[in-house]
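User: Before I run my own analysis I want an independent prediction to cross-check against. Here's the chain; please return only the structure tokens and, at the end, one sentence I can use as a sanity check.
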Amino acid sequence: REVVLEAVRQNGDALRWAADPLKADREVVLEAVRHSRCALKWAADPLQADPLLSTEAGAANPFAVQGSKSLVCSVLELRAIEGTFRFRVALGVGGKELDGDLPRSSTLGDLGRYIRASALNQKQCLYLILPCSAT
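Assistant: Structure tokens:
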């Protein structure tokens, strides 16, 4: 499974040569669709009909699965200020930070897309680490 996950991260169409049980594995298929819009045609039939695995959904998802080779982004600050969410994010381990504001109605997916659009290759996924609550 790990070998196939790495293969589809390199080329989503590698799903074509995966064993049938892996073509029915949601995580493997999602990773393939993230990297190739055409990869869904190689998935098992039930997954081809899954709206969450559509090429649009896979391409729009900015988040990587655990263990993938992706930029790790740590949320250093996330707080509500009037009608916005203010955030500060550390990109990788190099010390570069990104900060900004998003509308109060934003989701974590919106934050991920903002980070990806501002600091990453649009096709690269990121692994987002959220701060622990002190409650």
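Sanity check: The beta strands are 71-81, 84-91, 96-103, 126-129.
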